[in-house]
């Protein structure tokens, strides 16, 4: 494939509802949609999912934009690629910056699928025609408000409910949730808000028959999670700690988790997600695909990766309308009774609607082979 141009569409999207975690409250999403254009004028799309600030991980959208503009987009327009799996190796001299790498790689994957008349799900090797979906609920000011939100989402048919916890909003709150909803598939996500000093508190969560406790300890930690998992009946699911294939391998070997939340951006793209998928499958570690409050393009990428067989637990690919008054794709993603149908159209399976996107657009940066700086390696 020859990609002649990368376009970075920088957007700012107002969220329909504020989203509160142990990091704080978020009301807007700063997103970059990556467009890779081939010599025939065909476009593939990816989404960079870095946060507004380096709270979830070290990356943030301003840093990711520089990384994509200065390093990763130029590498794509200056090289001929025969398969998107080659992109990871092309980017390898530059460390980390996984969400920036993944945004660009995602656009190459979509373009590759379209050039070959395949769905993105087929291109990544997935076989499902529909995927199960859960929902991630932020912290609310009161337990009553949270219970109302859960009821609404249970009524909409979501297949599991994830509730955020943080110190001071944990065991008693989850006790009330369980008392009101004794049978729902329920999990909690701490976003790294605890330490091993909180072991008794975390053990108290065992009584609630949770599907999993997501990322209770520090982002990046593998060792303490292994100690904690030995003390808990509830499976630990790692999110922030799994930032590479190597981290997944270490966590599996040390027994740091029994479940992995794969976020395509966090691990550096689809190729790395597939590697982690295959490794986890070999070790009977089930997966699910976590969300980063994506716009439609990222959501469709998540759906495609979820079609791989070891994504056996419901992911975060809720309906577009959960996040946005108006998404940037047509048709939007719709979950019905907790199930999303995988599109049978080529690539991501929906059109990026430029008229809609225009409303959120801050700027478009265009990188062409002629303008891109030559890569200089200082070694
Ligand atoms: O619905 C979604 O997209 C998932 C939202 C969600 O839970 C998260 C999004 C972004 C960063 C984190 O706060 C968090 C997570 O840890 O999974
Ligand atoms: Mg999480």
Describe this structure in words.
This protein has two domains: 3-117 and 353-368, 2-Layer Sandwich (Enolase-like, domain 1); 122-349, Enolase-like C-terminal domain (TIM Barrel, Alpha-Beta Barrel). Helices cover 34% and strands 21% of the residues. It has 13 helices and 15 strands. The chain has helices spanning 61-77, 86-91, 98-115, 120-124, 143-156, 171-180, 199-204, 223-231, 245-254, 264-267, 270-282, 296-306, 354-358, and strands spanning 3-21, 24-38, 43-48, 130-132, 135-137, 161-164, 186-189, 213-214, 236-238, 259-262, 287-289, 329-330, 339-341, 351-352, 361-368. A seven-stranded parallel beta sheet has the order 5-6-7-8-9-10-11. Helix 5 links the parallel strand 5 and strand 6 (161-164). The radius of gyration is 20 Å and the shape is globular. Bound molecules: the ligand O=C(O)CCC(=O)C1=CC=C[C@@H](O)[C@@H]1C(=O)O and magnesium ion. Residues 21, 56, 136, 189, 191, 239, 290-293, 316, 318 line the site of the ligand O=C(O)CCC(=O)C1=CC=C[C@@H](O)[C@@H]1C(=O)O.
Quick overview:
The chain is an alpha/beta fold. The chain is 34% helix and 21% strand.
């Amino acid at each position: 494939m020859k990609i002649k141009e990368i376009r970075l569409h920088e957007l700012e999207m107002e969220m329909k509802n504020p989203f509160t975690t142990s990091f704080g409250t978020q009301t807007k999403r700063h997103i970059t949609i990556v467009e890779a254009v081939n010599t025939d004028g065909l476009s593939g799309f990816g989404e960079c999912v870095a946060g507004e600030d380096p709270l979830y991980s070290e990356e943030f959208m301003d840093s990711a934009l520089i990384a994509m503009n200065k390093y990763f987009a130029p590498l794509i327009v200056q090289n001929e690629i025969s398969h998107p799996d080659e992109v990871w190796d092309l980017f390898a001299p530059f460390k980390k910056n996984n969400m920036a790498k993944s945004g660009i790689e995602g656009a190459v994957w979509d373009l590759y699928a379209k050039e070959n008349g395949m769905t993105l799900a087929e291109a990544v090797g997935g076989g499902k025609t529909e995927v199960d979906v859960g929902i991630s609920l932020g912290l609310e000011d009161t337990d009553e408000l949270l219970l109302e939100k859960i009821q609404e989402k249970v009524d909409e048919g979501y297949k599991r409910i994830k509730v955020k916890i943080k110190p001071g909003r944990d065991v008693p709150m989850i006790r009330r949730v369980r008392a009101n909803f004794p049978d729902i598939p329920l999990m909690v996500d701490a976003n790294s808000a605890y330490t091993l000093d909180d072991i008794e508190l975390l053990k108290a969560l065992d009584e609630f028959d949770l599907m999993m406790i997501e990322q209770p300890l520090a982002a990046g930690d593998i060792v303490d999670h292994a100690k904690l998992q030995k003390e808990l009946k509830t499976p630990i699911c790692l999110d922030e700690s799994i930032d590479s294939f190597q981290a997944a391998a270490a966590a599996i070997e040390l027994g740091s988790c029994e479940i992995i939340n794969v976020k395509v951006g966090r691990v550096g793209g689809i190729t790395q997600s597939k590697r982690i998928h295959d490794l986890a499958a070999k070790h009977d570690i089930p997966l699910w695909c976590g969300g980063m409050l994506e716009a439609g393009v990222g959501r469709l990428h998540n759906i495609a990766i979820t079609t791989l067989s070891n994504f056996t637990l419901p992911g975060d690919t809720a309906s577009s309308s959960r996040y946005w008054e108006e998404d940037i794709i047509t048709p939007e993603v719709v979950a019905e009774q907790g199930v999303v149908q995988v599109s049978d159209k080529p690539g991501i399976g929906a059109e990026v609607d430029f008229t809609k996107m225009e409303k959120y657009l801050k700027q478009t940066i265009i990188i062409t082979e002629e303008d891109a700086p030559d890569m200089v390696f200082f070694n």
